[in-house]
Design a protein that fits this description.
By secondary structure, the chain is of the alpha/beta class. It has one domain: Uracil-DNA Glycosylase, subunit E. It contains eight helices and six strands. The protein has helices at 2-13, 19-31, 68-71, 79-90, 128-144, 155-170, 202-207, 212-229, and strands at 49-50, 56-60, 111-115, 150-154, 185-189, 192-197. A six-stranded mixed β-sheet has the order 1-3-2-4-6-5, sandwiched between helices. α4 (79-90) crosses α8. The two termini are 25 Å apart.
């Protein structure tokens, strides 16, 4: 399975399905911003990463233009990642609380991180056809990650796309469509729970819509759910 996941990530890295995203990610890498003027940007689609035996799958939105698009690893080198890895470290899923570049020694245990979109979109707003182009990668990952018991959707787009992908991969027949909300929790079947959280974006954290305690509480609940699945 590890090799299959690895081969899939190699396919993702060379993807050029979305001309607008290819142009944007490469433009950002050329023009940069002052604080990263001396850095070589990754400027390719981002592979997912984490533990191939993970029971927790996190589905985000897309790389940040000067975060993942620069560093080459999801949620690495931006404010959202600062929040995410701090919370994962507190909950015992990450070996360190920070992540600044893809070779900084960060390791995830029992957790795998992916995203709805693998390239940074302009204004952080992907077009529907771009999400559709990326969808097969998410479907394949979910099919390959055999041990997943909890899926955490970061923000409404992450939540909705995780739900849609699970419905297809697992052939779910849901009578009521689960609705996104911070702390929303939906048992999709006897072996899988979908959880929602506000995205740790600056828009949410700077305004206080999402606090550190609120975010940490989500991961404490994830731990409780995983313990329940052991019994």
């Amino acid at each position: 399975m590890k090799n299959n996941l690895s081969n899939l990530q190699k396919q993702i890295i060379i993807c050029k399905k979305c001309p607008r995203l290819v142009e944007w990610r490469e433009q950002v890498a050329r023009e940069k911003v002052k604080r990263f003027a001396e850095e070589n940007y990754w400027a390719k689609p981002l592979p997912s990463f984490g533990d191939p035996n993970a029971r927790l799958l996190i589905v985000g939105l897309a790389p940040a233009a000067h975060g993942g698009n620069r560093t080459g690893r999801m949620f690495t080198g931006d404010r959202s990642g600062d929040w995410l890895f701090r919370a994962l470290h507190k909950a015992g899923f990450a070996n360190q609380p920070t992540s600044v570049h893809r070779n900084d020694g960060l390791q995830l245990t029992d957790c795998f991180i992916t995203a709805t979109l693998r390239c940074a979109p302009p204004q952080n707003k992907p077009a529907p056809e771009e999400i559709a182009n990326c969808r097969p990668y998410l479907l394949r990952e979910i099919a390959l990650l055999k041990n997943v018991r909890v899926i955490l959707g970061l923000g409404k787009i992450g939540f909705d796309n995780a739900l849609s992908a699970c419905t297809e991969v697992y052939g779910l027949n849901l009578t009521l469509r689960p609705q996104f909300g911070h702390g929303a929790e939906h048992a999709l079947n006897s072996r899988l729970t979908l959880v929602g959280t506000f995205h740790p974006s600056q828009q949410n954290t700077f305004t206080g819509k999402l606090s550190e305690e609120m975010f940490d509480k989500i991961f404490r609940r994830v731990r409780q759910l995983l313990r329940q699945y052991q019994h």
